[in-house]
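Example record used in the benchmark description.
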Amino acid sequence: MRSAKWAGVFAVLFSLAGPAAAQDGYPTRPVQLIYPFGSGGTDSLFRVFAMAMGKQGGEQFVYINREGASGAIGAASVARAQPDGYTLMIGPSIVMTNLPYTQKDLSYTFDSFDFVCQLNVNAFVLAVRADSPYKRLEDLLDAARKSPGKFNYGHSGTYTDVHLNMLTLAKQAGVQVQDIAYRGDGPNLLRLLAGDLEFTINSVVSVASRNDVRPLAVFWDRRHPALPDVPSVVELGYSSFFTGYQGVYAPKGTPKPVIGKLEDMCMKAVQTEEYQTAAQKQGAAVVPMRSEPFAAEARKNYETKGKLFGELGVQPQ
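Model output (structure tokens):
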């Protein structure tokens, strides 16, 4: 009888120790790293990150493209996964900070995730053709003020950060311009070069090495390392703009020791030569941030966008 009693006690103790022991040794098996978009673009940088994380943790980080619904399908699959650190998401912030305001019937919210670490900042740039008469941002804005509604610009998606940046700048600068959304930076630039647009808002990487366009301003609070001679909009007197930060996210409720291990691995992975080289090729500014400050910045971003979407009268569709 007494031995049966102690057997029950030990069973309870072992059941409690099991998860803690698993957390201490994390990871003990391969980790799924979900990118909620298709292959191409920054996808190649995240693949390098997955390999770097595998070397740090001693287990493979299996990189998976799970695209659809502007990132919502992949994000939802991570949100409903077991919060044990073995299913993570990597990618841009918009799946948490934008889609809850623009997509109807999402199966997740901003609060469905724990923020593990920030990796990069992908700033956006306002550019004109190289032969444009506009040499400075103010030259362009002055001309737009004199011709309300007659200047066309291109961007890569309605109510994405790219679009929101120009809506914000137009409001602050007192200009009326017409936007045209294209499926990506490539088509956007083609229409600019064809003369259909006065300017575009694009990712820095898409214009940094080109000589047929002229960047006028970067939407960030500092100059971008890939475009050191191009002023930031903040430098030019404007404010409240969005950068496309990229990071790693876990299902809500992932144990803190696991988050801590992951963020340590992240900080080391982004400093590897392989990752730094890949980021430079992508035009991504490596700006690592740990879990708590990353989560705080993300929430601020999310709430700021909520106010902006409210002012614009945007309803989920």
